[in-house]
Design goal:
The complex is a heterodimer. Chain A is mainly alpha-helical. Chain A has a domain of 221 residues: MetI-like fold. Chain A is built from 14 helices and no strands. The radius of gyration of chain A is 26 Å and the shape is globular. The N terminus of chain A is likely disordered. By secondary structure, chain B is mostly helical. Chain B is elongated. Chain B contains 12 helices and no strands. Chain B has a single domain, classed as MetI-like fold, CATH 1.10.3720. Classes of the chains: A mainly alpha, B mainly alpha. The interface between A and B is large, with 46 and 37 residues.
């Protein structure tokens, strides 16, 4: 990145000697997006910090219990730093969090960092598998749907995507479990096996959650791919290809797919970020010990430190993913960076 | 949408359209008509459940886990309560929360959108910066943060769902207003000294209305999904009150033996969000003006 900055500013003074070096639009775009990400992360930290202070009752009540005397409470207040002004508390908390100290769970006394570290790999595995599932069915189905426009396949695919978008992921997950336990009674529908324990069983237990999470994401991809392909079919180069003797299939494979894929990649990237919210639901349906399940348990048990850390981690993942997508977009579609 | 529409001046045009506007609506907006029909059916069935049902939602009406029969069309649940009656009572909650959340988002979001789009300048920049910030968080995460702090009563749920939907609403409306602001009828109103609030109500509002209809339907569809998700996680509508989300959660333990228990609420959810989706799709498709 720094290379392109110096390269551009080195080239410019020759043409416009009196002006300050202007970074090329792409660098400006990346800087703007990075700044935006930082602002969002700051807001996220304020939200997570604020959760504790918005809650009725102070952490001292929770720790000291109902029968504590004033001296204990005063000591706890000083120990926790609750007597200091809010900005000081915020900075202390932020410094701790950034150094990886998320506090301890009130419920089981374990460090929150450990709780999250144990569960993060499972959530990431689910997210990656679900993304792959959605791409594996959404893109081909969308392309084929456009090729067979108005035929049975098209109608079926469109109906599937409509249902995929209208049904909540958790209800679809429950329906899948039901279907599989009736049709394939030997299939392990619920219950998660860690990859380190038994890779084969782990992969088997991830099949249904990945499908459940991948269907709605794939539905969006399928719809975008279809409309993008239909738009490409209207273009001159396809007509030329057909006029010069290419078959419909050849024209699609050689010229259609690649041109249609660029805008869809944008959507696919944005969809990845959407997994963050939906994985919370799927983890609860399939009893996968991930961050999402931890979040819900923490909120139900009023385990504030854990809830705070979970919201922070999930939110930060979302922001980082969005930023990563922003960085990738100009590579896929050069017009985006140029704007 | 409006600028290209040819003016029809034939003598028969107006009375013809006046007489058959309903038929014309059904013919040109098939998807929307189907959606409205489906939604109205659901709403009427759930709102009048106390009139046509033989049981109350909390009354033990038969043996627990009875399969669907003529007496209990959708069977009974783990406590022997009539499942159809519970499903329709839950519909009042689920449909109601989504409707009020979408209505609130419509009011607040459109006001912000029109203000930002009409005024422009610093007001626009600040409002949009705030809205982009809210949009940068996953909506379910925002809802979860909110229910961490507040007990999820129905009012809180409506407020939370509305908060999530406001930014999208404001964005859509603002974009349209920015476009309308440059048009001659708004410019001429401005030049002749019409105050901004009057321009907003008399000139902008009628032109944003179709857009608001579409956005309202989409918002309601999403609100139904998020409310049911929260209730499924135990962080939305709380158990003595039935909602489609918490019914699915309760049914999960018995679903192999009694598949009608999860499938009933799941089907209802699908139908409701499908209906709103059809309405949204129906009003957004095509460039024909309404009616």
């Amino acid at each position: 990145m720094s290379q392109s900055v110096t390269g551009a500013s080195g080239a410019q003074p020759r043409q416009r000697a009196l002006r300050l070096p202007v970074p090329p639009p792409l660098v400006g775009f990346i800087i703007r997006r990075a700044l935006r990400g930082v602002i969002v992360l700051f807001a996220l930290s304020l939200l997570a910090f604020g959760l504790v202070h918005l809650l009725p009752g102070s952490p001292v009540d929770t720790l000291a219990g109902p029968y504590s005397d004033a001296a204990t409470r005063a000591r706890l207040t000083t120990d926790l730093g609750l007597d200091k002004p809010l900005p000081v508390q915020y900075v202390t908390w932020l410094a701790n969090t950034l150094s990886g100290d998320f506090g301890t769970s009130v419920f089981n006394g374990l460090p929150v960092r450990e709780l999250i570290g144990d569960r993060l790999p499972n959530t990431l595995q689910l997210a990656v598998f679900a993304t792959l599932t959605s791409i594996a069915w959404g893109i081909p189905a969308g392309a084929l749907s456009a090729m067979k426009r108005g035929r049975l396949f098209d109608a079926t695919a469109r109906a599937t995507t409509f249902v995929g978008l209208a049904i909540p992921v958790f209800a679809f997950g429950v329906a899948l479990v039901l279907l599989f336990s009736i049709a394939f009674p030997s299939w392990p529908t619920l219950g998660f096996v860690p990859f380190s324990q038994d890779p084969a069983q782990n992969l088997q237990s991830m099949v249904l959650p990945s499908i459940a999470l991948g269907l709605p994401l794939g539905s969006t991809l399928c719809r975008f791919m279809r409309s993008s392909m239909l738009e490409v079919y209207e273009q001159d180069f396809i007509r030329t290809a057909l006029a010069t003797g290419s078959t419909h299939l050849q024209a699609t494979m050689r010229h259609g797919l690649r041109n249609a894929a660029a805008p869809v990649a944008t959507v696919a990237g944005l969809q990845m970020a959407g997994i963050v919210g939906n994985s919370i639901l799927i983890e609860n349906v399939f009893a996968i010990p991930g961050i999402g399940q931890l979040t819900v348990t923490a909120i139900t048990q009023h385990d504030v430190a854990v809830a705070q850390a979970c919201i922070l981690v999930l939110g930060a993942t979302y922001v980082v993913l969005n930023f990563a997508v922003d960085l990738l977009l100009p590579l896929i579609d050069p017009q985006i960076g140029a704007k | 949408m409006t600028h290209a529409a040819p003016v029809r001046v034939g003598p028969e045009a107006v009375p013809n359209r006046q007489r058959h506007w309903f038929a014309a609506f059904l013919r040109t907006r098939r998807e929307a008509s189907a959606g409205i029909l489906l939604l109205v059916t659901l709403v009427v069935l759930s709102m009048t459940v106390h009139l046509w049902a033989d049981y109350t939602p909390s009354e033990v009406a038969g043996a627990p886990f009875s399969p669907p029969s003529a007496q209990h069309l959708l069977g009974t649940d783990d406590l022997g309560r009539d499942y159809l009656v519970r499903l329709m009572t839950a519909g009042q909650t689920s449909l109601g929360i989504a409707f009020f959340a979408a209505a609130l988002a419509l009011l607040v979001g459109s006001a912000i959108g029109i203000a930002a789009g009409l005024r422009g300048g610093w007001l626009d920049s600040w409002l949009m910066a705030g809205i982009d910030l809210v949009l940068s968080f996953p909506s379910l995460l925002l809802a979860l943060s909110a229910v961490t702090v507040f007990n999820p009563t129905k009012t809180i749920l409506v407020l939370v769902l509305a908060l999530i939907a406001v930014p999208q609403f404001a964005r859509v409306v603002r974009a349209k207003c920015l476009e309308l602001r440059e048009r001659e009828f708004v410019l001429s109103a401005r030049v002749s000294g019409v105050p901004d609030p009057v321009i907003a109500v008399k000139h902008l509002l009628p032109n944003v209305l179709p857009l608001m209809t579409v956005q309202f339907a989409n918002t309601a569809a999403i609100a139904i999904l998020i409310e049911s998700s929260l209730s499924y996680l135990g962080l939305g509508v709380q158990p003595p009150d039935p909602s489609w989300g918490n019914m699915i959660y309760a049914a999960q333990s018995y679903m192999i033996e009694c598949p009608w228990l999860p499938l009933g609420p799941a089907g209802a959810l699908l139908l409701a969000s499908f209906a709103w989706g059809l309405i949204g799709e129906g009003f957004s498709g095509g460039s024909r003006s309404l009616i």
